[in-house]
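Protein folding task:
====================
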Amino acid sequence: MSGIALVRKPGPRVADGLVTYLRRDPVDPGLALRQHDAYVAALDAAGWRPVYAA
């Protein structure tokens, strides 16, 4: 399967996200960015064309 995959990098305040219905673990912004980059690479390897949304 192939097509366009709209993606967006984690924002600078990703660690400030609010979750009220479960215990909150600290968010590592660096890890979130590395995971995002791996996700985009996996999409690309699977034949999708990642397009960054504004």
